Amino acid sequence: MVPKIVILISGNGSNLQAIIDNVANGEIKAEISVVISNRSNAYGLTRASNASIPTVVFPLKPYKEAGKTRVEYDIDLAKKILEYKPDLIVLAGWMHILSADFLQHFSENVINLHPALPGQFDGAHAIERAYQAFKEGTITHTGAMVHKVIPAVDRGLPILTQEIPILPEDSLEDLEERIHSIEHKLLPAGIKKFLSEL
Ligand code: GRF
């Protein structure tokens, strides 16, 4: 049976595109069952539709407006994902932190892409923080990783990591561009590795 992947996004979806391309060219032997976005205007939804992949918009706002909790949102999101019976759930630029209430529905098969090395620059704005740390002389390089998701943000077991140089002449945009182009290879490679160990 071809493994099924559910992908969660919040924005541009350039990493989603890398997965779509690697499924299309046979590098990743899997089916993308659905792309779920918490934002209705995420460009990644257009990328999914262009590739004839079903999409679901699953925003937090209606929950807040109805006085429901974040835990209720997380549980309903988990239930929505489980409808697709996925082998793997990929967070590809998903900007919500997922709680233990979400993760308890899954068996260590949720993975995330993070633009920093393990234990460095957890959470948001990791690239800006690495750039600043380089300017202050506290780091010589940064990196990116694909890791399993646990309740502690960006602290789960790494599946693949890659060091990425920072050059003295780099602007922040240069560094962002370098990291993103590496992420576009690292995430498909991380998915391949995960699937090979199923
Ligand atoms: C990536 O840099 C990823 O590491 C971070 O969010 C960004 C998503 O970019 N978690 P995109 O939406 O895949 O273009």
Please describe what this structure looks like.
Its EC number is 2.1.2.2. Pathway: Purine metabolism; IMP biosynthesis via de novo pathway; N(2)-formyl-N(1)-(5-phospho-D-ribosyl)glycinamide from N(1)-(5-phospho-D-ribosyl)glycinamide (10-formyl THF route): step 1/1. It comes from Basidiobolus ranarum. By secondary structure, this protein is of the alpha/beta class. 38% of the residues lie in helices and 21% in strands. It has 7 helices and 7 strands. The chain has a 7-stranded mixed beta sheet. The chain binds 5-O-phosphono-beta-D-ribofuranosylamine. The site of 5-O-phosphono-beta-D-ribofuranosylamine has 15 residues, from helix 1, strand 5 and helix 7.
